[in-house]
Design brief:
mainly alpha, 2 domains, 14 helices, 0% strand
């Protein structure tokens, strides 16, 4: 229920989610551009500088976050000739985690810390199953990371007046559609967008039931622990149909979630090694 804040009235011309993401999440915009650059046969220094030019502070932010000592052009040269574009992509993903989960309203007992923590754990969780799947590890990470992003969309759209004082459950479908449309416009990998699109579909109507079963189990376990402020796994057992779809036992999944939760420390500076 929306009890925590006095919310704005419907805005007849609110900014789109895409406009909000472009303004506030430059590394999310960067990721698909980096993917194209990685696939280029012979990328140049100019390519790297141009790819990061949509936000004037982006390259500075990435340079500082990496721990690299030097200016932005020196950093770009080191990426091109030493570290590689894969390192820059990993750095961008870690930096993005600090940008995309800001909740402008903090409703429903949710906070920026909670949504980010759960999302990062889900990302690391799904990525652990790369051996079971014919998927790129980064795509699995992003699918887990953005699995609950429709809630972030909800708070942004509520703040700018796209919705009235409606509960999230009433507009969840609209939020999923807005999220997917914006990510598609940014050119996020179709697999990642499809995972969000299917997040409320019946399991065997999704395109990737194995991944959805894993994420639904993990999301429920993490959410239950958040709401009750209790140990992971307390309360009711995992959904048997979802477990059967994964082929893993409740103990195996719970042990992995406990490990990832214990080791969660947010996103830190990436140590730079010349």
């Amino acid at each position: 229920m929306l009890l925590e804040k006095e919310l704005v009235a419907i805005n007849e011309n609110p900014p789109s989610l895409h406009e909000i993401l472009v303004e506030n999440c430059p590394t999310l915009i960067l990721l698909p551009k980096l993917e194209s650059l990685i696939n280029k046969e012979e990328p140049t220094l100019e390519d790297i500088l141009t790819t990061c030019s949509h936000d004037e502070s982006l390259l500075t932010k990435l340079t500082r976050r990496s721990g690299f000592v030097g200016n932005e052009e020196q950093f770009a040269r080191d990426i091109l000739f030493k570290k590689g574009l894969g390192f820059l992509k990993s750095l961008a993903i870690r930096t993005m985690n600090q940008e995309i989960f800001e909740l402008p309203l903090g409703l429903n007992g949710m906070s920026t810390h909670l949504i980010k923590r759960r999302s990062v754990i889900l990302a690391r969780f799904l990525k652990r199953f790369v051996g079971d799947l014919d998927r790129e590890p980064d795509d699995l990470y992003l699918a887990g990371l953005l699995y609950n992003y429709s809630y972030v969309t909800y708070e942004h759209m509520l703040k700018v007046g796209s919705f009235s004082n409606q509960d999230f459950d009433e507009v969840r479908g609209d939020c999923i559609e807005m999220t997917c449309s914006s990510l598609h416009e940014i050119n996020v990998e179709p697999y990642v967008v499809g995972m969000i699109e299917d997040s409320v579909s019946d399991l065997y109507e999704t395109r990737n039931p194995f991944e959805h079963a894993l994420l639904r189990i993990a999301n429920e376990v993490l959410e239950r622990a958040e709401q009750s402020n209790s140990t992971l796994g307390r309360g009711k057992s995992m959904n048997r149909n979802l477990l059967d779809a994964t082929g893993y036992t409740e103990r195996e999944i719970l042990n992995l979630l406990k490990e990832l939760s214990k080791n969660y420390k947010g996103t830190t500076t990436v140590p730079w090694q010349p």
